[in-house]
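Summary for the lay section of the report: proteins are chains of building blocks that fold into shapes. Here we show the chain for F-box associated beta-propeller type 1 domain-containing protein and then a coded description of the shape we predicted for it.
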Amino acid sequence: MEARSVFPEDVLEAILSRLTLENDIIYLTSDLIRDFSQHCTDKPMKLFNFLFCGGVVNGVVLFRWAEYYWLWNPAIREFKSIPQPRPDRAQPDKLKEYTTFFGMGFDQNCNDFKIIRSVKSMIEEDDGWEEKHIYEIYSLRANSWKRVESPSYRLGLSMNSRVPDGYFNGAYYWPTEVYDSETASNPCRFGILSFNFSTEVFKLVDAPPPTWKVRSESEWCIDKYKDFLAVIFTRGNFEDKVCSFDIWVVNKFDDDDPTVPLSWQNLFTIGPIPCGHNLLFRAFAWDGDMLLVVPGTTGRSECAFYNPTTCSLKRLGMLLTNCLRYVESLFPLSKF
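The coded shape description reads as follows.
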């Protein structure tokens, strides 16, 4: 089915998001509430306060709440509950686990949806807590989880939940800070961690160089800009109360592994935008417009579309905390 743009028309119905209102009520699209309620009758509605979206692949959306995962195809109203991971627990009362990041992709070699996640495991010992990281992958075709080999680096990773669109060309990508040792307190460089869903292997490459002067006034993330894998560096200027965005895209991938970026191009800089120094990037629309979080007219933050060509800002009057680009498909989950 032809890809359908969901920005900026029909924002409430087309963007799968959770909206935090002034009275702390969590609003979801009516379709999500309808389908989720029918398939997860044992889960309280308040779980939406902690519902994370892990992106959309081939029209299928991934949701996570605590250690529960669901797949949803809103076009055909199919919902699938994923079995909960069961890591080895010799002493469950002395074990604490936290999901640090996750993502979904599609393995074209075996026509299979897969989910990759990282778990920080804290085991209580006599002399304190021992920390280790476990990496697990779920196969929809096998309907089970298994462990995969960990990256051989010490990385500073986050779920990047505000921009859940790191899937591109058969792999998932995360921005990360790389440390040269387990005891180092400061990162030695910025990197891009990729996971190939066909080979089930992690790769780490250097990220393009940021142009920040003050680290505390900046952030960066990975998204798709039109047909490119992109890195977006946000640069805030506290004194002038403006914000700029440096857009880098991959212009060459590895011939042996086409999911590994080899070189980057600084495509352009957007801004400075005079809406404050702490604007937050949320997503690129299909036409290149940016979805941003900006200071609202009433003092509260709100989302707005920014057109880099006309430098115009269209406020939406609402705050979208999870945003993604949705491509409708009729891919059936029931075939697995």
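Put simply, here is one thing we learned. The domain at 11-335 is CATH 2.120.10 (Neuraminidase).
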